[in-house]
Amino acid sequence: MALHDLSRLLAQKPFRLVLTSHWNPDGDAIGSTLGLAHYLRGKGHSVQVIFPNAPSAPVAKAPGYDAPFVHLFDQDSAAAKQAFAQADGLFSLDYNTASRVGEAMQAELDAFEGFKVLIDHHQEPDGGYDHVYSQTSKSSTAEMVYDFIASDGGTLDVAAADCLLMGLITDTGSFRFPSVSAATLKAASALVDAGAEPHRIHERLFESNPPSRLKLWGRGLNSLEIIAGGRATLIHLTAQDMQECGYEAGDTEGLVNQGLGITGVELSAFAREDASGKVKLSFRSKGEVDVNAFSRAHWNGGGHIHAAGGSSEGNLAEILPQLRSTIEAYLTK
């Protein structure tokens, strides 16, 4: 889909729109969705935002997150369902398959009868959308939303600029990942020109941590293993670790990246045991190592070439040997 096609669609009349993102929304999910919501509301559209559940506390400080037009499906499904029922159009941001929103909310997406728009940078998006803006080379969905706004010729307010810059910062690892391009930096520059303040965003994201985050990072880093002949690292946390350290949502965000700081390491894995009986997995890589392909093949997941996630039923003690063996086999094939 060309961006001007979306502009033409939205220029027809004021629409009632629902903007959605994925389960456990991260900085890019919250930033891109709220950034677009602020912009579209400024253009005269009626916009409701629905997240499946709450993000981490630092991300929830984004401008507009506490606004009346933002709903959490797991906390107020009645209001969310009403918004879906009344909307003319649905936007899916920062996820490529409807299952990423959770089973309960997915039913609303599947039943939606208005037009559907996908804006996302992950590989292999679902079908079923009327308008698809999918570009895997982009650093973030926030960058894609900025591209749309720039092509639409609209004006960014400070709230939209702040949200979008937060999305850029979080999904690029503060502009250090290979996905960062000249266009990414130009988008960041334009967002600063519009009033976003990088130092304030960085402070609320990375310098307002609860003690539980530092305790969990300490335990996680203490568990670090170097495997696959020095080409990979593995970090893990048990459900007991999470409970004893007082885990809060978002506490382990970024922990998986630490393993890549070791000389010679090309793949870093992080395994976190949930009280629900699942193990959540995160993978990061550099060079030619494709963790999207690895996660899809072995761990019911996916994402990007250098950043992906997955999950497995069972407990950590059972899964760690499988995780070590699949990583070693993948890197030595």
Q: How would you explain this protein's 3D organization?
A:
Helix content is 40%, strand content 19%. By secondary structure, the chain is of the alpha/beta class. It has 2 domains: 3-206, Alpha-Beta Complex (inorganic pyrophosphatase (n-terminal core)); 211-332, Roll (Diaminopimelate Epimerase, Chain A, domain 1). Helix 1 (3-10) crosses helix 5 (141-152), helix 6 (158-171) runs antiparallel to helix 7 and helix 6 packs across helix 8 (198-206). The protein is globular, with a radius of gyration of 20 Å.
What structural class is derived from the secondary structure elements?
A: alpha/beta
CATH fold type of the largest domain: inorganic pyrophosphatase (n-terminal core)
**How much strand content do the residues show?**
15-25%
Mean pLDDT equals 94
SSE topology string: HEHEEHEHEEHHHHHEEHEEHEEH
Supply the CATH class of the largest domain: Alpha Beta
Across the major sheet, the strand order is 3-2-1-4-5-6
The total of beta strands comes to: 12
Question: Concise description?
Answer:
With 333 residues, the chain is of the alpha/beta class.
Write the layout of secondary structure elements.
Blueprint lengths: L2 H8 L5 E5 L6 H16 L3 E6 L18 E3 L4 H10 L2 E5 L9 H9 L3 E6 L10 E4 L6 H12 L5 H14 L10 H12 L4 H9 L4 H12 L2 E3 L4 E6 L1 H6 L22 E7 L4 E8 L5 H8 L3 E2 L3 E7 L2 H17 L1
Helix pairs in contact: 1-5, 2-5, 2-6, 5-6, 6-7, 6-8
